[in-house]
Amino acid sequence: MGHNGERSRGATVLRGWPDAEWRIVREGANDGREPPPDAARFFTAEGRDVAVPETRMKYDSTRRRLTLVRGNRAAYAVDKHAESVTAIVERRPGITATVLTDELARVAGLTRDPARDAVRSVVSTGLIHTHPGPRRAFLHYPGQRCDECPE
């Protein structure tokens, strides 16, 4: 496979023939190996009168059906770490952003920027909240913002 593993070789010639192209890609493994069979899959379609942005697919094994659900690869990469972020904050309420990002990166095998994006995403959903701390730090606490939390 060429083009980052998302198209076959010679695809530039083949792309002029169909009215629409459908593409299903699988979430890649972090270490470059083959992704697991249950890795998330994403669908996109484009062409004449067709424009489906990249959307995550979900497989229902009991009904044997695929459905499209909210999110693309970028959003999914952040959302899948939400449980880890909330678990860290619940274990250590008042944790600073730097320590939280470093611990998430270590636990989830991420680099610093994706870990920071995951923390910001979880804060924006309201699963955790922040309060200002000493030396311009942001302290993270579980749940919605509350008046009882220490400032």
Task: Describe it.
Helices cover 31% and strands 28% of the residues. The protein has 151 residues and is α+β, with helices and mostly antiparallel strands. The strands form two sheets. Strands 1-2-3-4 form a four-stranded antiparallel β-sheet, with no helix packed on it. The protein is elongated and about 60 Å long. The N and C termini lie far apart (53 Å). The model has no long low-confidence stretch (mean pLDDT 82).
Looking at this protein, list some descriptive labels:
four-stranded antiparallel beta sheet; 151 residues; 5 helices; 28% strand; alpha+beta; three-stranded antiparallel beta sheet; Arc Repressor Mutant, subunit A; 2 domains; 7 strands; 31% helix
Q: In brief, what are we looking at here?
A:
The protein is an alpha+beta fold and 151 residues long.
Number of domains: 2
Alpha-carbon distance between the termini? 53 Å
Shape: elongated
Query: Count of DSSP helices?
Result: 5
* Rg result: 20 Å
Question: How many strands in all?
Answer: 7
Mean pLDDT: 82
Strand order of the largest sheet: 1-2-3-4
Percentage of residues in strands: 25-35%
Fraction of helical residues: 25-40%
Task: Indicate the low-confidence ranges by residue numbers.
Answer: none
How does the major sheet shape up?
4 strands, antiparallel
Q: Write the element-wise H/E pattern from the N-terminal end onward.
A: HEEEEHHEHHEE
Assign the structural class, choosing from mainly alpha, mainly beta, alpha/beta, alpha+beta, or little secondary structure: alpha+beta
